[in-house]
Amino acid sequence: MYKTFNDGMIEVITGPMFSGKSEELLRRVRTLEYAKMLPLLIKPEYDNRFSDDEIVSRCGVRRKTHSLKNINEVYELLKQDKYKAIIIDEAHFFGNSLIEVADDLANKGYLVIVAGLDQDYLRKPFGPIPALMAMAERVTKLQAICVVCQHAASTSFRKDSSNEQNLIGDYNEYEARCRKCHIMGQKQKELLKNK
């Protein structure tokens, strides 16, 4: 699975909301622990929807994590133990400084696995994830199910008209949608706004 690990590498797990990114990330953690590769789990302090100090998947799997305000704090944590892998959930919230940090850690021989959104609610490239996808040795792009037509969903549709890019939310604020249904929803919001 991680044949090039000794040389370091970056892996990205991405997709829309509700596609199982955190669950897939935690599955990777279990595999690493089975192989006796100590992982350092990190998430941004900003995202405390489900827990302040755990990565939580929507299916209920929970793992203790370090919540960081700034991704550069990872270097201090790496002094504390013999970690082999750095696991980062909700990575899009760390901003573009994550690109340099992830590249540096992989260059130092760490396995760096990040999970996060590659698109924002307008289907535009979001945060550091698109750049990390270009740099990564491995990319897993997950899909959800469109709530409108039940086809494969690759986007996160925001139900309200807020323009804030980093709006934390869940089922009340967002839906998984396919491209066609996302475009249709945006047009409907525009019509309502112009009435």
TrEMBL record:
Active-site feature positions: E90
The protein's Enzyme Commission number: 2.7.1.21
GO biological process, one term: DNA biosynthetic process
Pfam families (alphabetical): TK
Residues reported to bind Zn(2+): C146, C149, C178, C181
Family: Belongs to the thymidine kinase family.
Subunit architecture: Homotetramer.
Name of the protein described by the UniProt record: Thymidine kinase
